[in-house]
Amino acid sequence: MFRYYLKLGLLSIRGNPMLSGLMVAAIAVGIGACMTIVNVDYIMSGNPIPQKSDVLFRVQLDSWSPDEPYDDPDEPPDQVTYLDGTALLKAGKARRQVLSYRSGRVLRPEGEEQMPFDVNSRGTSADFFAMFDVPFKYGSGWDKTADDNVEMVIVLSREINDRVFGGENSVGRTVMLNGDAFRVTGVLEDWTPIPKFYDITNGAFNEVEDVYFPFSVSISIELSGRGNTSCWKPVGVGGWSAFLNSECVWMQYWVELHGDDERAEYLAFLDAYAESQKLLGRFPRPLNNRLNNVMEWMEYREVVEEDVKVLLGLAILFLVVCLLNTIGLLLAKVLRRSADISLRRALGASKNAVFSQYIIEAGVIGLAGGLAGVGMTWLGLRGIEILYGQFDFVSNLVSMDWVMILAAVVLAIFSALGAALYPTWRACRIEPASQLKTI
Amino acid sequence: MEIGPIFRALMRNKTSYVLIALQIAVTLAIMANAIAIIQERSRLMGRPSGVDENNIFYLTSTGFAEDFDVRSTITEDLDALRNTPGVIDAISTNTVPLQGGGWSSGIRLEPGRDNESTGFAIYFSDEHGINTFGLDLVAGRNFLPTDVYWHDFDTNRWEGAGIITRAGAETLYPDDPDSAVGKTVYINDDDPITIVGLVDKMQAAWNGWSGVERSMLVPHKRTSKSTRYVIRTEPGLRDRLMPEIEEMLATSNRGRIVQGMRTMTETRERSYFMDGSMIKLLIFIVAVLTAITSLGIVGLASFSVTRRRKQIGTRRALGATRVAILRYFMLENFLVSGVGVAGGAILAVGLNIWMVQTFDLARIAWYIIPAAMLTLWVVGQAAVYGPARRASLVPPAVATRAV
Predict the structure, then answer these.
(1) Best of B18, B33, B37, B64 to mutate (most A CBs within 10 Å, chain A)
(2) What burial letters (b/e) apply to B262-292, b meaning 16+ CB within 10 Å?
(3) pTM score, two decimals?
């Protein structure tokens, strides 16, 4: 019977192109608006590193002022001090750990053809590449001994390698940053974690850094950070070493821990460390250390723009209006066909049969609306791309993957079926003989 | 007016009308809140930064050569910039209003960390700062060349003069802001700064910060290798001078790179980009929504007219005029829209309350809801006019036909 109803449904749709067209359009527009925003939200709250997001943890220590918390209501700073970062790194209690911060340098290509230019750099300890699954095109990162020996080694991003070395394998060659020579140990593949979860200070959707070198080197050349530096106490006399010994937070610390036991153990270690610092007169606030995994961290930092959430709410209401429209149109269609329905009922069709027929017809409309809705969503995303074109990262946020396409179609079908329930129920209630009279 | 019969006729066949009323209600809720958001964002975007935006641009100079000397470079650069024809003035500083990145510090009325501090945006400057930014000095005096000092990274002391904005003075001395001139405040816990002047307005670098109107200029020159030069030109000369000045600085000293050149105008655009885009999106959504609801009204009204051809014909045969028929349908829609906008008003308020709580949005201004109600009411009437007119054209003869 399904095929028969399908055939009836298609015939009826074709017989009424205007009305059917309007219904499909209503659904398509509603789905388009809704799914455009859902798509952006989906990508923004997506998992940038799904294979490891629950074993990577951001460390927060509450080294802040006794008079007020770092942030309301009682949040510890999101970065660590030099003293604490290096102490934790030395203790090495986690499976892997990384201390890093972002800065800037001037890269001076060899020869006269290319002018020196500014690069974003990251001074990081060795585990960075393994921990964050950073893909390499040539070579590799460095190891702990390079960190300890303050070796002048460097890893280049793909763009920088293309620009300076024409994309060749530059492992072993030299790169000048300001007055310092670095030896290339590796070149990265294209790497765009969305969002840039490991350091969202300068923007959650910014590009990753251009060059990476050991954290110890960064400190030895007295490179200050290009992110946020927050201090609750003045730095005091003594230049760079005073800054390193201060209570200013400016570095990011991540650890890799597998399983709840390791996590609990590490948290206990952090608390013990905090206690030991209290004995030295630091950490005046009560114990407030945190370990958030990647997704928890991004929620904590509210990575998804609030505007997106507001638009999401409005888009859902928009869909509601479109569905109300669809219900109205379906109802009109059903009532127009009352004579047809009552004739079928008089000839013996059960209420169920009538119900099935019209539900299936609505399903077909929903499917058509969904497919058209995918097209509308694509248009909507292009619109977003144009509107927000100023931000380079936007192109990463406006792509549709299969999950989203499927979601659009499924949402359309379910909405159409939902919208059809009332009109179809009305259709079933039409009495067999009621419409057969001519007056 | 035949409201009674219309109403009773409505009640007998409620569903379609309920649907239209619901559509109108939800559309109103969205429309009213969208307008509230648009209003708030426009207000934010309209706040003046306090500087001469049309004629200011800035660029960053970053030294990299081993023999790069910060102090002589900055002194030479500023000299060259200030003597360029068409340039009103120039300074070396850390940032500009609305830039997105900058420096802020807590300022205290009494020395010592135990005392309360208020956050101020800090701008490094010299005696040319006010003229370069185009600020309005409203009390006290500008910096003198003798006030200016170079920062010493080793001793890290800040001591000397400061100029703050009116808003800053109002926060520190709420009872008598003008008395701020001559007072001493404390930065970095206990470094004293004497306020020598007040400027009318100068915003901080972060447009979303609650303290955005509180800024302090200090006659303090930094010795870091990277600095921003802010340049103010004569009206109309900015675009021509920008590449010229960039070229001049790039060639005058090969031990540094010049980059990140931007106008204040572009800085403002970038700063409010999200808000501007939100406004455009919301306008689009409201327009499309109104169109959809109007089409819904037209559709359902047409259908309703077609269904009642016989009834209309009968009424006409019994003596009703065309105008009476037209009036009937307009009135019917008026009632339905009325219920719709009434329900919509309640929904709008409810939605607004929820949004204020969840998203920290502004409360809706009282006049927006009645205005939106009126708009949708009128839109509904306009939409139904077409089908209503068609109804009025139904000839009386229809009553006598059997089909």
Answers:
(1) B64
(2) bbbeebbeebbebbbbbbebbeebbebbbeb
(3) 0.85
